[in-house]
Amino acid sequence: MTLQQELAVTPSAKLLVEDVSKTFHTGRGAVHALDRITLSVTDGEFVCLVGPSGCGKSTLLNVVAGLEVPDAGRVLTDGAPIRGPGRDRMVMFQESALFPWLDVLGNVMFGLRLKPGLSHAERREIAHYYLQLVGLEHFVHAYIHELSGGMKQRVALARALAPNPRVLLMDEPFAALDALTREQLYGDLQRIWAERRKTIIFVTHNVREAACLGDRVVLFSPHPGRIREEFRVPLPRPRDINSVGLAEHATEIMRALKGHLRGAEVAA
Amino acid sequence: MKRLITALVFFAGLIVAWEAVVRARVWSPVLVPAPEAVARYLWENTFARGSVGAPNPNRWQLFLAIGVTLKRLGAGYLIGLALGLPLGLATARFRVMRDTLGVLALGLQGLPSVCWVPLALLWFGQTEGAMLFVVVMGSLWSVVLATEAGVRNVNPIYVRAARTMGSRWLHIWVKVIIPASLPFIVSGMKQGWAFAWRSLMAAEIFVTILTGFGLGNLLHYGRELNAMDQVIGIMLVIVFIGLLADKVLFSPWERFLHRRWGTGQTG
After folding, report:
1. CATH architecture of A3-267
2. Which of A52, A64, A78, B262 fits a 20 to 30 Å CA distance from A251?
3. What is the pTM for the complete model shown?
C-alpha cells in the first residue's frame, strides 16, 4: 500500500451514543458523571462538548474511546457497537501523553507499527507525512522534553492521525497552552480537519474555542452530567477566534451555559 | 577540567591534613599510620617485585583478593537481578503478590544484610554458597521494591494512550510499562548493587573460607594483626571500587535516561 493509497482511504464514521450512563464510586460517595446521554455525530462533523469541570464530558469521550465501559447504554460506529479501544477512534489527551523514552518519530511510529498491512518503509513515509502536516518535519529526532508545549501537542496530533482513524477524540488538547500558540493550533487543526476529513469530538470548557472549532456545540451541565442544549455554528471556515461574528456566537452560548448552571444550582 | 582540578585539590588537601595529624603525634602511629605507610602497603601488595633472591611473596595479592570479591559480587548481584526484576513486575501487576511478596520484600529489605550471615553459615557452612546467599539476599529485595515502585508510578495516561493505538497486554508491558519505569528500575539496580556490596563485605569479614580471600577477609586479618596500614589500605580499595562501579556501570545508563527524560540537568 503506498502513501497515496493509504491516504485515499477516508472511512465514513457515523457515531451514535445511545442512552449512556456512568457513575463513579469514590471514597467520598458516588459521582453521577453521565446520565442517559444520547448524541449522534455525522460523518466528518466537528462537534465540541462544552461544560464546567465535572460535567462528564471527558467521561463521555473516554466511553467513546472505549477506555471506560458505561454502566448502561452503548456507543455505535456505523451501526456496530464498540468493544474497547480501537484504531478507528484515536484520542488526544490534555497532557500530551507522549512517550519520553521515544523520540518524535518513534512516538508517531508507535501506533503505525501496530497497524497491520504496511511495510516498515511505508510506515516511515506515513509518519513523515503527518509530521510534515503538523509542521514538525525538522524535529523528527528530537526528544519529547526538548519540545515546547505547542510542539508536543502537534506531535500528539500527528501520532493520533497517523493510523488514519475515522474519529478523532480530543480532550482539552490545547488547555495548557498559551493564547498565541493556541490560536496557531486552531488554524492548523481546521486545515487538517478539512484536508483529512475526520469526524472530531472535541472536549473543552472554553466556549470561544468551541465556537471557533465546532460545527455544533453541545452544552453539558454537571451533577448529574447531562446534555442541556445544542448550538449550530454556521460560520464559514477557516474561522478566526478573534472575529466579531464568532464572538457573538460565543456570547450566546456562554449566556445559555450560565443559565443552565444557575438552573442546576437552584435545583440542587 | 575545572571540576577535575577542584576534586584533585580537595583530595590532596585531605591527604595533607592526614599527614599533618600524623606529624603532630596526636595519636599513636599504630592507630593512625602515615599516608606513606598505607601507600607502601598498597604498593607491596600489588606491583612491588621485591629484591633479587627475595621476591615479594605478596605481589598481586590485592588483585587476587579484588578478583575473588568481584566474582562473588557479580554472581550474587546477577542472580539478585534475575530474580528481582520479574518478581518486581509480578508484584506490581498482581494484587495478591503485592499483599504477600511485597510485604515480605519490604520487611526483608529493612533487615540489615549482615543479619543473614549467621543463617547462611548454619545452612551452607563455610562455603561459597554462604557468600552467594548473603549477597543475593542483600540485593534481591531492593530490586523487587524499586521495580514495583517504578511500574506503579507509570503515568496511567501512557497506558491509555497505548491502548487507543491498539497496544495490548504483553505489548503494553514490553513497549510501555517497562520503558516508562526505567528510571526507577535503574535506580533500584543501583541500590541493589550498593546493598550487594555491603552484604558481601559483611560476609567476608565474618566468614573465613578457604576457597578464596576477598577484600573483606584481608580487612579482617588487618584487624587481627593490628595492621592499621592494611585496614586503611583495603578500605581505600573498597571505596575506590564502589566509585568505579558507579561511574562504569550506572553513569552511562543515568546519562542516557537524563537525556531522554530531560531530567537532572542541574549541573
Report:
1. 3-Layer(aba) Sandwich (3.40)
2. A64
3. 0.79
